Amino acid sequence: MLAFVHDFDPVLFDIWGPLKLRWYGLSYLMAFVVAFFLLRFLSRRGQWVIPESKIGDFIAMLAMFGVFLGGRLGYVFLYMVPESGWGIFAEDPLIAFKVWDGGMASHGGFLGVAIFTWVYARKNKLSWLGIGDGICIVAPLGLLFGRLANFVNGELYGRVTSNVPWAIKFPQALHEESFLTQQNIVDACADKAPDFTKMVDSSQGLEVAVRASSEVKQIAEQYLTARHPSQLYEGALEGVVLFAVMWFLRMRYPKAANGMISGVFFILYGIFRTVVEQFRQPDSALIFNTLTKGQFFSLFMVLAGIAFLVQAKRSATTKN
Which tens digit of pLDDT belongs to each residue from 261-284? Predict the structure, then answer.
């Protein structure tokens, strides 16, 4: 089956020396900029609990202490520790803070945001659920930008498929291939692109070689297995669709009880993530030999969403 061979460069452009602007970093920047303007719009309309004058500082602290720290710690403790053990901290005590090495978990980010906003709400005597509603409205766009960056990076790719015309062959998935396929690629490069033979003998090496050599790209097209572009599926559901629903709810029910939008967000995200995980290559061992970690953690998000809706219902009843 012929399919497009992924050859996008994760670096947008070089700045100076080792300093580079990567698509992944740009996606975070875009997410926070868009969030600032949308939340300011809602605040001006009286549809968010944080005053307009404080939104800039709030976004900056949310990014650092909620998204980045929560996402990184979530990845370390939910994925790295279960796979490699606690010994990783003995080898590198600062591994939990090395976000530049890659590895962020969306579920960890959600937890980090929840904890940070709870502390912020207590300190500023604001509604925690009210703050959360605003964040849940703009969060899908951040997820969209992040998934697009995942696609450009060729990471978090999908499962093998042979029946969709938009399937893609990811060089980053070389280690998922059989030993025979890996050896065929190395042998083919030794014959047709000898300068890249040593480079392609690893997943990251093949990724770089594909961008540098048309011969290596043709070899990858011949031997690699086509996969679902699951990053784009996630971007469509967790990003575009979820944002449309959140924005509609805020515009349609501007006086909805605090927690209603957060509840719907958590439930839909959990459902969407569970569905898309059927097409995404598992990046860690299955839980109960059935569920991916993404699906397992999404169950708790659905339960949290239900709890938020119950609280919102109680609040509305009390006011009436």
Answer: 999 999 999 999 999 999 999 977
